[in-house]
Amino acid sequence: MKSKFTLLAIVLLALFTTSAFATGTKEGAPAAAQPPRTINVLLWDDPYPKALMAMLPEFTAATNITVNIEMLQPPQVLTKTAIAVTAASTDYDVVGIDEGNVPVFASLLQPFDSWPAGKVYPKTDPKSITPKMYSIGTWNGVQLGVPINGNLYVWMTRKDLIENPAYQTQFKAKYGYKLAVPKTFKELLEMGTFFHENGIASGFGPFNGGPAGVLSEAVFMWESHGTKFIDYTGGTFKVVLDETKAIEGMEFYKKLMAISPKGAETMAHVERQAAFAADPKGVFSMFIWPAQIAAYEDPAKSLVAGKIAYSAPPAGPRGQAAVTGAWAIAIPKASKNQDAAAEFIYWWSSKSVADKLVQANTIPARTETLMNPAYTASKPWLPALAESMKVAASRPRFKEIGQVQDVVKKYWVQGITGAIPTKDAVQAIIKETNDILKKAGY
Fold first, then answer.
1. Smaller CB count within 10 Å for the chain: N or C?
2. DSSP per-residue letters across 158-213
3. Where in the sequence of the chain do the CATH 3.40.190.10 domains occur?
């Protein structure tokens, strides 16, 4: 009888263990049972991967996998990947790919569906990321990488301004509705105009710095007015910009420029931060990239720390868009350590690591972490980021995008500053972008 009970206990234990592994609720074999392995990883240099590096001992202890991370500035990551990753060989087992460069390296990356199952950590669940963010790692219908950071537009509004009783009374008397976080472009313009005309604050903080950032603003306006810029259709890239809607978007931005601080035509991130956070008058409302939030909320650097309301960007007349600038983590086909590489990515994209990264003041792409009440009380921008992810919009993605964004910056700035008519600016963007695509063979 004793032997029968012993046998039953062994069978039940085996069934429980198998079930736990299948659902991903338990880790696999302990590190001591795993062979020692080493993987090389290429990432971009900013606080997010730096925070991850501090957690690597945890991963190595669980898997017996040593991770060598090399971090470079984003343009250097592109150059290094182009040299070090080929169809036949690779110096790296995991690479961070800026979303705009996913098409460039698509043929060299292992499709996500073919990644090995984890021995210790369960495979990344696509549902842990909003569909529009998840598409960042996709090209031509194939998922190639896991979007890993929540880098996209989030909106900032001066809470101290919209909660001021006198301003609330004056605004409602003129416009007939409550002063609040702007939910539409119409509200953004009217509220911004109110603060600007009354000498209280500048109404808007534009971005007219680097070409990539100017393209982001153009895409933000165009998508919000119901038109895409460039699309991949029929197996090639085509300019699909609706001229009328594009002009409308540029004209609206021109109105925002009229209520912006002095020097708005050349404002980049440093100037925007100074205007919003260091100028005693400040700026009413504008977008921000998540990595910059810490500086705006630092009382030692900012006059408006604790006085900012965060939200998804306001909606335009035909759409709502939060422009993305995220990275996907991928495995080169030529890697000889794909099991270990996949294990590393599954660990990195797990909820437990996302929770730790949030506490380190970085932004993962995992939605449930951004909505966790344990963090949102002290980090009120997190739910706003999760809302922005629902309306994420990517910039065009192909090899010649650098040339295109130079064209967009040239004519966009001329159009919104009145140097040339907005119609001429849009037509020039369409013509010269088509010339670039034709020359590239699309």
1. N
2. EHHHHT-HHHHHHHHHHHSS---S--BHHHHHHHHHHHHHTTSSEEE----SSHHH
3. 16-151+325-385, 154-323+400-440
